[in-house]
User: Fold these one by one.
Assistant:
Number 1:
Amino acid sequence: MTDNLISIAKILNFHGVKGEVKIGFSKGREHQIQALKKVFVKKDNEYIELNVSAVRFHKHFAIIKFKEFNNINEVEIYKGCDIYLSKEDVEKSLENDEYLISDLIGMNVFDEDGSEIGTVTAVGENLANNLISVKDANNKEHLVPFVKELVPVVDVKNHRIVVNNIEGLIS
């Protein structure tokens, strides 16, 4: 089961004395956090299943109350722990044109004419957008902005990405 879990947030601290925790999560994922019902927390290499009873937002953080905890002493040991969801639950919460990084790594990359360019080796981000790193047959890395105009096709089922290889993008 543990290889089917994906980290989605981190417990940054406890909040108040009634067993609530303050979590950090990726910007734009509020809808996913709001919908949480059951999560897993990794503590000492063990995954503990927890049930969410309430979620609210404060500044850029979420405050979560778990049914299993009623006071600060019960939650403070989880400070710094990651919060996980099953891969299936994460996939259900993805919007159109959203993908798991783990699904993109290793995908074959082709240009719009069908010529193979290489393989996705990493996904990163800059201030403007995500980037895919594509390694070609000569082991040269190319960074491609992961935007619809340059990456019009992402076919997870067939493990294939098509890149609009405009002049100078991949040379």
Note: The first strand starts at residue 5 and ends at 15.
Number 2:
Amino acid sequence: MNSGFNFRSLSAKLSIVLILAGSMNRVYAQPKVRWMKFEDAYAATQKNPRKIFVDIYADWCRWCKVLDRDTFSDTGVIRILNEHYYPVKLDSESKEMHTVGNNKFSSPELAATLAAVKPNEGLGLPTMVIISEEIQLCEVIQGFRKPDFLKERLSFFAFNKNAAQSPKKASVKWMKFEDAVEASRKEPRKIFVDIYADWCGWCKVLDRDTFSDSVVASILNGQYYPVKLDAESKEMQTLPDGRKISSTELAANLATSKPGERYGLPAMVILNEKAIVLTRISGAQKPDFMTPALLFFSKNHYLEKSWETYSQEYLQQQAKQHK
């Protein structure tokens, strides 16, 4: 009996095994998220609208790596991101510059803008952001999240067309600055100016959460002439004395007390009936602040008492009504 190995037969069997193994690896190869740059996702959604998902990370962030390893490797997460979103990886500390529309951002600036981080406020990592097809902020998700949580949030926004829009109880009847000035000449009211820019994440939060509030909208519509002013528009504006200046110049004149002084967005300005600045309010203030602030000036309480006194009286009055 021949007890020797048949090397030719063994070699053939091994070849078949290797071929099958290679085929199986190709069939069952782990899919991956097709990450892209934000500017490419922005351009893509202009042509074929989809929501944008942004994973903001840094090389030193340990939980960012855990997110990559445990969550972005999940086949369900991968499928939803690849099929229903334009998924973006954004290094929050990169020196890379990004051109989005007519605006240029450094990577840290873009990360802060997308995550709607206030000036001088730190950005925690990891941070994930979901942006609507209209480049409106849908949701900011902070910290490490497991696959099941992320699949639920991704599915919610992907399959709910109205999920990006908080239901508005009311809307402000915005007008142009010159129209507000002219209207105040005929029927004196104070003028409220909301200074914004398209790239400003907190401006969008202010629109979504504060100017949609029924009480805030009612006060602005009934007791003010409310103005929307794009700080980066090239549109010319007419001043009360008849002079014409650009929207950018008007925004700077209203938002600052000194020529050349820098200001942040969003910026709100309240003018008296003669279009003279009474006060400036910065940041995405909530309705519970804006309501008494608007009443403080529209009802002329500012002529009789300090803001500190009035705000305390207002809070006490609200507490009594809710007892």
Note: The chain has two domains: 38-159, 177-285.
Number 3:
Amino acid sequence: MNAKSRGHLRELVETVLIAVVLAFLARHFIVESFYVFGTSMEPTLANAERLFVNKLSYRFVPPQRGDIVVFRYPRNLDRDFIKRVVAVGGERVEIVDGRVLVDDRPIDWPHPIIADNAHYPLTEVPERMLFVLGDNRRNSEDSRFFGFVPLENVKGEAFLRFWPLERLGFIR
């Protein structure tokens, strides 16, 4: 192998290594893909959709009510769940006949939900915790069942649906 060929080979190896390192850093610190499993977020998100999750934004500002977050399931940290933030630390949440109240005010969501007739007692969300619900309340294992989600369990905010292609777009 002549010097010119070795130079091209070295350049190729360096380019591939840089690409692998950048992809690794991006996946672990900036953006990650997520597979929606189940119907708990219908009609907003459907089973088998693929999303991108912004892992960077919550390093600077905490999740807010209405955000759709991916988090490590509190009962099994090897599983990821996706739900909508309903209340944050310091707020009081209650569910009466399916109607969600935060700090004694009803929440009127700007997006469609599938409601149920659930009840949840008035409870204050501890600091550094979230109360989350699925948009399909009839078919969602959420904070009503597993409790609060610690902020350190939150992986990021769902922001872009990329599969199926006919539903490609940003997520509200």
Note: The longest strand covers residues 154-163.
Number 4:
Amino acid sequence: MCLIFTGYLAGMRRAWPAYRTLWIFLLLGWTVSAADRALTGPVVTWMIENDVGFLANVDKPYALGGLIGGLFFAGYMLTQFPGGYLGDKYGHRTIIVISLIWAGIATMISGVITGLVAFIAVRVITGLGEGAFYSNDRSLIAQETPLEKRSLGMGVVITGLALGITIATVFAPNLIALGGDVFADGDDAWRMPFLVLGAATLVVGIAVAAYFRRQEPGLPYAKATLHLLAYSAVGLAAVMGIYFLGNAAGLSDLWIAVLEVGLALCLVAFVFSRRQSEVGAVLKNRDLVLINLAFIAVLWNLWFFSFWSVSIVADAAGSSFGRSAMIAAFNAGAGILGFPTGGWLSDLAVRRGIGRKPLVVGFTALQCVLTIAFGFVVAAGAANVWLMAALLFSASTFFNAMQPIAQAMLADIADPAHHGAAFGMNNLIGEIGAVLSPAVSGALRDATGGWSAAVFVDAALIGGAVILFLLVREASGSGEARPAGRFSRRAGSGRTTASSSTT
């Protein structure tokens, strides 16, 4: 009987490999962290509509609201490369856990802060912690997943991004309403979403830590946290320093966002000058650079719609805050279909010798066309909400489908020893779009009185990404399958090495 039961368990392990469990935990991490970062957009929209909080009696509320979102991504951007580098040094699992727990605590603090400057500083700190997640998540999937399922794994896991943005968009009105019942001052209702979702992130972070402990006990959390704190302290001082200097000089919110992007470019130059041995291959690779530049448009689009979609729908259709949030959720919810489908199609195309590039180019081009159509609907005014929902869903499905394909292309092209640095640099450069998008789009809304100009700018950038993806050369032999490796820590370094056995 024992032999039969043991054989049954062994069969279950073969039917459900460990890398799929890893996918689930990472998906949960993406869900809560994405909800935390997407929350600011609906909250800012509610503040503008109700003329409360930091946005009461502001001359250009959309520009200021966009700057608040952009400064979060300035912090998020500045730990992209350090997070990947530290993951290569201390282990990707270590940095993932630190990022999630950090984000949970900082998001909860966002809900109790009083004052615009303090709120911005805490959102920057939240971004600095969350910024370390992406490069380590992508690297861990690339390491632990068989090559023939790599793109599918990346697509399944990053579906959590769509789930998190959908949760933040759909439930923000409900959580704000709950806050109105809980807090004595109804103007403080906006605090409740940060408290609830921050607590959820903290719970998930603890669960992920427990899961990783079973795989790899004794992760060096203390050393890695101190190292990440050192990078983050410099990043916080730089972001807030530019904010204070810009305000003192009388610069507009848009120009402050532009200066924050300049900070990112300075970081790229600094990294290249100081760590050429680790990242020279990443920064000098023509095809990786093309993908990274294309991701400026990808991140611009992602956070333009994630941050402002509720306001766009409300303005174009004249609908209520709650109904606008439901319609806007079609944009985020499309990722639940798009991410895993794109990953699956990508792996299928590689197995059939087609390659990933045709899918990336085709899906991005279709998204561009649909975004242009959405812009014309918005420009016409009195838009039908269901037509807007259909266009948002369709464009976002193709947009989300292309992302895991492009990320798998990056993993195919980059040296596996530098995956953390490659993904970190990809998101560092791509986050230029995330920093500028909310602020530039908000400034265009203030200047024109509508959202159509911002939508057409977004479509033009996506068209540029199509051209950049066309110029990328796929890695030769990327379709050759290899087994997933079991990864163990090198003595004294915390880095991972592969053996031939399957997890």
Note: The longest strand covers residues 487-489.
